[in-house]
């Protein structure tokens, strides 16, 4: 089982080396415009923990407020964001965890409109190899976590993000086979605790 998967849910803020933020306003405006123009995205993902463990799966994002990460077997994990909550299902432990979406670093991706100012603090902006990397955390709540977004600049497209946990361990998610503008079934983002389904079937 991949370790560090819970790093998607929580991480502290550590400031990264960055270009002068006064010179990055145009870049940040482009990032805001990209996310605010994005409705749906489906992609395959590769998640890599700091210890090298990895897992793959399919991600669905439906802005605002909905997201689903379905891991390929044998990884027994499902993550669903909906109704301002983030649901984490651990199939091995047979345990469901629910946290407020806004308390997670990934909640930044689902904001509408997305504004990289005010209650979101930009900790760093970097350009290299055709990619723009922006690190952010919730203003006044740095202990809740930070996330670095990596976007391909031409054309602008989200390709990766990295979250760091309370022990300074990084979890990286890389997207490929990206499709946007698709129509999704809303039921895809409904979290139904598998234990309830099993209990219902056993009672028949």
Largest sheet: 11 strands, antiparallel
Strand content: 35-45%
Number of strands: 11
Judging from the principal axes of the Cα atoms, what is the shape?
globular
Give the C-alpha Rg. Answer: 17 Å
Order of helices and strands: HEEEEEEEEEEEH
Mean pLDDT, all residues = 83
Q: Can you list the strand order of the major beta sheet?
A: 6-5-4-3-2-1-11-10-9-8-7
Question: Residue ranges: pLDDT <50 for 5 or more in a row?
Answer: 9-19
What class would the helix/strand composition place it in? mainly beta
Distinct helical segment count? 2
Helix content: 10-25%
Terminal CA distance reads 33 Å
What does this structure look like?
With 204 residues, the chain is mainly β. It is 11% helix and 43% strand. It contains two helices and eleven strands; from the N terminus they run αβββββββββββα. The chain has helices at 25-37, 194-202; strands at residues 40-49, 54-62, 66-71, 77-82, 85-90, 95-100, 120-128, 131-138, 146-153, 156-164, 170-180. An eleven-stranded antiparallel β-sheet has the order 6-5-4-3-2-1-11-10-9-8-7. A hairpin with a 4-residue loop joins β1 and β2 (54-62). The radius of gyration is 17 Å and the shape is globular. The two termini are 33 Å apart. The relative contact order is 0.23.
